[in-house]
Amino acid sequence: MARGIEFEALGKRWSLRMSITAICTVEAELRMTFDQALKAVQTGSILTLRMMLTAGLGGKLPAEKVSDIIEDIGLERAGELIGEAIALAFPQPDAESEPDLGN
User: Fold this and answer.
1) Which run of H or E residues covers position 23?
2) CA–centroid distance for 64 within its chain
3) Residue 73 domain boundaries
4) What is the pTM of this model?
5) How many structural domains is the chain composed of?
6) How far apart are CA 36 and CA 26, in angstroms?
7) Segment 45-79, tens digit of pLDDT
8) What's the whole-number average pLDDT of the chain?
9) If you write DSSP's letter for every residue of 39-103 in order, what string do you get?
10) Cβ burial 19-31 (10 Å sphere, 16+ → b, else e)
11) Strand, helix or coil at 38?
12) Per the domain annotation, does 7 fall within a domain?
């Protein structure tokens, strides 16, 4: 199970998890790869940002509620949280922990 990033918005604590299920939801809903969705957010797609946040929050919140969360924390922080959740869910192995394949 992907670990989540805890944050506060609208006077409540939330946990954002970019799990495989969340990523698949983003791809299915937006009809684009996750990489394309990330690029869309980087170039200013607020719809994509909201979809990613919705999926990462479990996919059950109405769009209006997720929009309220974004307005409360700000667009920049919402994007940062998504990046942090992705990094937490899919950590990069460090050089010391990589297996020696005899090369």
Assistant:
1) helix 20-30
2) 18
3) 17-90
4) 0.85
5) 1
6) 10
7) 999 999 999 999 999 999 999 999 999 999 999 99
8) 91
9) HHHHTT-HHHHHHHHHHHTTS-S-HHHHHHHHHHH-HHHHHHHHHHHHHHHSPPPPGGGS-----
10) beebbebbbeebe
11) helix
12) no
